[in-house]
Amino acid sequence: MKSTAKFISLAFIAGVLGAFMFQEFFSTPATNVIREAPAQYTNANYEPKVSNTGAPAFAAPENFREAAANSISSVVYIKNIQTNQRSYSFMDQFFGRSSGNREGNDVVTGSGSGVIYSSDGYIITNNHVIEGAKEIQVMHEKRTYTAKLVGTDPTLDIAVLKIDITGLPAIKVAKSSDVAIGDWVLAVGNPFNLTSTVTAGIVSAIGSETTSIRENFPIELYIQTDAAINPGNSGGALVNTAGELVGINTSIISRTGSYAGYGFAVPSDVVIKAVEDLKKYKFVQKAFIGAEILDINDVIAREEGLKDLTGVFIESVKKGSAADEAGLESGDVVLKINDNAINSKAAFDETLSAMSPGDKVSIVFNRNRRILESQLTLENVFGNTDILDESSGLSEEDIYFSNFLGAELRKLTQAELDKYNLKYGVKITKIDQKAGFLRQLDDLKEGQIITAINRRYASDPSAVANYIEQYSGRIYIDIIDSKGRTETIKYIFR
């Protein structure tokens, strides 16, 4: 009986170990794709550009030796080291795997690529490559360096690192605005933990507005290419046939997580502006005109009586904004910013992305089939030209204007959260004194912070506005005034 029980026990253990070893050694591991986009997508919209070379854009060079030689030494391997809570199991003991420490903190690593921006140790990569890192390591020519994070912009998916070394081979940078559809490009990076791989393809679209990309990345400015980009390529270089940087590889569209014909890179013109701002201010100084811009499709053209689909449509203009001061109106069609033709929202955004608040620009627009021109001074997200830092910076999505309320609401900056010791809050930044519901509520004023409505935390400006717009009955609004005093205001909405 004892021998039978012993046999059954051994058989059970053997079965468990057999199953585990099969899973461990023979099953196909799933590839973990960083920033993988969904498989369902639409074709990218783009504005064709004419090559400056005079040669056919599709003409392939004899080889890509020059491009590879000029770029491969400027691409580095990046390790993202984090800690992850995990249990210490019997199987870990059996196979001799350490749990890291008795608290169960295992050191885990992610990896990606980076590009040497300057010889004194500045490195460009993607934000998602280093996001959440406890330690960042940069490997170059068999040497490993610990990197410091200089700054990051999640909306552009760009991060800047610094390592303490000089004499590095900085990559040469070309203007992405000169890149044309059909141009040959190379993707240089470290996919699947391989080092210094080079793949070639052509530019298939510029200014991608693919729906699946927008769902995963706020930025709409991409160079689309069929050069093979795989997990680990993120943060690496997209270069032209001279080996000059034209983009930072950042994402793919794939059902499997591996290359399936579509890769996307942030254009170098956008990247370099972001890098210089992050170095100087630790925050990207983004420029706005103070208007809502839409792509023109056949529906808009038909409803607005537009002759063609050229330009971008101004849906609304924020009162008191740069666009408002320049005389722009809802229904105008922007055709040019300075000398740059604008035929898509992506082109509009890309043009502004290379500029800063305070820059003066010329805007050519169509109003009722009359071509007009106006000058304006670009502004920041707050509607002024101040330099912002990482504690005060907000994105355009953090600000909401309600026509019904006649008011502008925005999220609190980190500096404001710290000042009032808050974790959330929505600030009333502007109230239209001529129109809108909020001007009728004497107790609500510009500069006040709404912390809660009917005991619901106030953290999202659009959600706060929609709640007030639709609410009927007794409402309690918790506020903080400019002097830090708290108060609960009561109203009955009928």
Summary keywords:
single chain, 494 residues, alpha+beta, Thrombin, subunit H, Pdz3 Domain, 4 domains, seven-stranded antiparallel beta sheet, six-stranded antiparallel beta barrel, 32% strand, globular
Secondary-structure topology with pairs:
Blueprint: H1 2-25, E1 36-37, H2 65-71, E2 75-85, H3 90-94, E3 105-116, E4 122-125, H4 127-130, E5 135-140, E6 143-153, E7 158-162, E8 184-189, E9 197-206, H5 211-216, E10 223-225, E11 237-239, E12 245-253, E13 262-267, H6 268-281, E14 291-295, H7 298-304, E15 312-317, H8 322-325, E16 333-337, E17 340-341, H9 345-353, E18 360-367, E19 370-377, E20 399-402, E21 407-411, H10 414-419, E22 426-431, E23 449-453, E24 456-457, H11 461-470, E25 473-480, E26 486-493
Parallel strand pairs: 1-12
Antiparallel strand pairs: 2-3, 2-5, 3-4, 4-7, 5-6, 6-7, 8-9, 8-11, 9-10, 10-13, 11-12, 12-13, 14-15, 15-16, 16-17, 16-18, 18-19, 20-21, 21-22, 22-23, 23-24, 23-25, 25-26
Per CATH, what is the topology of the largest domain?
A: Thrombin, subunit H
**Radius of gyration using CA atoms only:** 27 Å
Our count of domains comes out at 4
Q: What's the assembly state of these chains?
A: single chain
Helical content band: 10-25%
Low-confidence stretches: 4-58, 90-100, 210-218
Task: Compute the separation of the termini in Å.
Answer: 82 Å
Hey, roughly how much beta strand do the residues contain? 25-35%
CATH H-level superfamily of the largest domain: Trypsin-like serine proteases
Total helical segments: 11
CATH class of the largest domain: Mainly Beta
